[in-house]
């Protein structure tokens, strides 16, 4: 598979990494960031995994399917956590959850290839 075959997933992973980092930063600015520790950790972990997946796809790496499977898992976990907070008015978490879900979908397609 060539680089262009990965482009939609690369874009989704890059966007997810960026939004997760923004969400973590916004969570730290909330009134009680201690209650958001799990959310912040998952945001940061998701950002790292998504960045790594994008880089590996750009390299046309041999382990893309394995890393994409991990990406799906962490994106779904991050989305679940962010959805909890998004329901309580934290727009940054609601946005993060939506972007994580989209990234998980894009990565799922890479696994099926």
Describe the fold and architecture:
By secondary structure, this protein is an all-alpha fold. It has one domain: Substrate Binding Domain Of Dnak, Chain:A, Domain 2 (Up-down Bundle), CATH 1.20.1270.360. The chain is 82% helix and 0% strand. The chain contains 4 helices and no strands. It has helices at residues 3-28, 37-58, 64-86, 91-112. It starts with a helix and ends with a helix. The mean pLDDT is 94.
Main sheet record: none
Instruction: Identify the CATH class.
Output: Mainly Alpha
What CATH calls the topology is: Substrate Binding Domain Of Dnak, Chain:A, Domain 2
User: How big is the Rg?
Assistant: 14 Å
Mean pLDDT across all residues, rounded? 94
Secondary-structure element string? HHHH
For the termini, the CA-CA separation is 9 Å
CATH architecture, by name, is Up-down Bundle
Shape, per Cα inertia axes? elongated
Count of folded domains: 1
Q: Could you estimate the helical fraction of the residues in percent?
A: over 70%
Structural class by SSE content: mainly alpha
Count every beta strand, where a strand is a DSSP E run of 2 or more residues: 0
- Count of helical segments? 4
Low-confidence stretches: none
Give the percentage of residues in beta strands.
under 5%
């Amino acid at each position: 598979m060539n680089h262009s075959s990965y482009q939609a997933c690369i874009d989704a992973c890059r966007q997810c990494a960026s939004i997760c980092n923004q969400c973590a930063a916004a969570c730290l600015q909330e009134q009680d960031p201690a209650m958001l520790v799990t959310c912040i950790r998952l945001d940061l972990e998701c950002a790292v995994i998504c960045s790594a997946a994008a880089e590996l796809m750009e390299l046309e790496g041999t382990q893309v399917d394995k890393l994409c499977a991990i990406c799906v898992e962490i994106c779904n976990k991050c989305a679940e956590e962010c959805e909890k907070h998004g329901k309580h008015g934290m727009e940054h978490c609601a946005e993060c959850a939506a972007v994580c879900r989209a990234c998980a979908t894009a990565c799922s397609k890479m696994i099926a290839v």
